[in-house]
Specification:
Order of helices and strands: HHHHHHHHEEHH
Oligomer: single chain
Strand order of the largest sheet: 1-2
Largest sheet: 2 strands, antiparallel
Radius of gyration: 23 Å
Shape: elongated
Helix content: over 70%
Distance between the termini: 79 Å
């Protein structure tokens, strides 16, 4: 009986220490968010995950994936996104993040495969734009043109920002609608249709006059 009591006490002590540690990591995580310290937040969340043994761990991993993506640690974000989506295939946001990770890592074919699954479900012009970008990179021009039309048909594309890399390496945030008009203009220039390209570029500037590209 005495031995059993000792074992029970030790078990309770271990659980108490574990709960105390988890609470400490949770406070550290919240504090890191408060002070916008992404690296400390990532480290704290890793520790919280290590102390979590139920299904809520996938929600935590999804959040960790977002933090890694925000810190441009795309490979870490990718691995977590894939794990989260595999556990819950209905989590299309995790798959969308996976697509963006592949894209940032230069794995365009893999990004395309994920975007092809994401765009029809989320129906967000942002993902149709990214899908078109991948298709243009892979010279799948006809498919690219179809998705450009989908972006332009959605009025929300005037409000959704995408990143445009300028020749000097700077990044400018522009509306998705202006970005696809620019893409369409480039494709027209590739076929020597300069009149059509000029119209596209003029329309892009009407949407966003500050468009440096």
């Amino acid at each position: 009986v005495f031995s059993a009591v000792i074992l029970f006490s030790l078990a309770n002590a271990q659980y108490s220490i574990k709960d105390s540690l988890k609470a400490h990591y949770e406070r550290t995580y919240q504090q890191a968010l408060q002070y916008n310290d992404i690296n400390v937040a990532i480290n704290a969340l890793q520790n919280i995950i290590a102390e979590t043994n139920d299904n809520s761990v996938f929600l935590l991993k999804d959040t960790l994936s977002m933090l890694y993506f925000a810190s441009k640690s795309y490979y870490s974000s990718l691995m977590l996104s894939k794990e989260v989506h595999q556990a819950n295939p209905s989590n299309m946001n995790a798959l969308a993040r996976s697509a963006e990770c592949f894209q940032n890592l230069g794995e365009i074919k893999s990004a395309l495969e994920d975007y092809e699954k994401v765009a029809p479900v989320l129906k967000n012009p942002y993902y149709y734009y990214q899908l078109a970008v991948c298709q243009y990179s892979l010279k799948r021009i006809a498919e690219c043109e179809v998705n450009i039309k989908k972006v332009l048909a959605d009025t929300n594309s005037n409000k959704i920002a995408v990143s445009f890399i300028l020749p000097n390496g700077d990044e400018q945030k522009i509306p998705a609608s202006a970005a696809v008009l620019n893409m369409s203009a480039v494709m027209k220039m590739d076929t020597k249709n300069f009149t059509g390209a000029k119209i596209n570029l003029e329309n892009a500037l009407k949407i966003f006059p500050e468009f440096e590209g």
